[in-house]
Amino acid sequence: MGLFDFVKDIGHKLFSSDADAAEKITAHILANNPGIENLGIIYKDGQATVIGTTRSAEAAQKAVLMAGNIKGVSEVVAKIDIVDDGGTGVDATAALEPQNVEYYLIQSGDSLSKIAKKYYGNGNDYPKIFEANREVIKDPDLIFPGQKIRIPLP
Q: From first to last of its 154 residues, what are the pLDDT tens digits of the chain?
């Protein structure tokens, strides 16, 4: 399962029909906007296409995770233009799957401290994971199996 694949039947239930899915997903991302401008969502048959512009690869990663961790979404297509301060485009594939971040699918029995112990050798480092996922995880004690998060690598 890569960054763009998600567990369709797990996550926050935001919509009850495909007709209002795009609007609800857009509102969800905008409520905690990680830095996406001109955000647009297209939703069809479990696939959410995220459209927008940002100056931050991290913002693009978070927008993809926010859309994917919604019940009913099984795949996210990222059509996010990432531009640097000079207005030059950045390779979106490299930015969305960088070497300094790993994506982790939460398993039953996981906690952020267990995940921190696995990646950093110290469970007390869980705030690093929480801060890297603040838009995706609202409470560090409330994560769920099937949720996908970012793990900043040391």
A: 456 889 899 888 999 999 999 999 999 999 999 999 999 999 999 999 999 999 998 999 999 999 999 999 999 999 999 987 666 677 666 677 778 899 999 999 999 999 999 999 999 999 999 999 999 999 999 999 999 999 999 8
| Tokens 């001109």, residue located | 38
Query: What are 151's two structure tokens?
Result: 């793990």
On whether residue 35 sits in a domain, the answer given is: yes
**Domain range for 74:** 18-96
pTM > 0.85:
yes
Phi and psi (nearest 5°) for 118? -65, -45
Strand ranges, E, within 18-110: 37-44, 47-54, 75-82, 101-105
Q: CATH number for the domain including 142?
A: 3.10.350.10
